């Protein structure tokens, strides 16, 4: 069974630029004429891209401006951002530039010291399965534990009675 990969994406941008409309068009396939300012909402969608299955968590935010301090929940454990501006608002275009700078700065502060690839190489050298996860991400964490159970089962089936121990 292929592992479902979890992706958390945050939509940012000045107010009333169409963040919710984009999310709604993507999730429900329709355009909303009405305007109802967002506080914050999260949409979940499973999608297949080629052979890969993804669980997307899409966070639609309240509009920001250049003075907004981005909360940690928007900067930690996020895989990607969609920065939205409106072609009819120069102000909203300035705001995406300011948001980009803030995100860039906050990236520097999260001090990763071990690259994903280094982890993978170490696991490879042990002949172990490698998955990188954060306890903040439910889906990947589920993946770690379902994978170890699958691996134990796989080895059990291939060696019959001989019992081993699986390392991840
Ligand atoms: N013409 C046009 N109108 C749009 C488009 N996208 C959104 N709108 C309209 O713009 C208004 C605001 O759209 P929202 O999607 O609610 O904007 P938002 O960025 O989520 O706003 P906040 O939640 O307040 O930050 C709504 O009336 C939408 O119908 C678009 O691509 N074209
Ligand atoms: Mg909105």
UniProtKB/TrEMBL annotation:
GO terms for biological process: TOR signaling. One of its GO terms (cellular component) is membrane. SUPFAM superfamilies: P-loop containing nucleoside triphosphate hydrolases. GO terms for molecular function: GTP binding; GTPase activity. It comes from the Eukaryota. Keywords: GTP-binding, Nucleotide-binding. Pfam families: Ras. This is RHEB like 1. It comes from Podarcis muralis. The gene is RHEBL1.
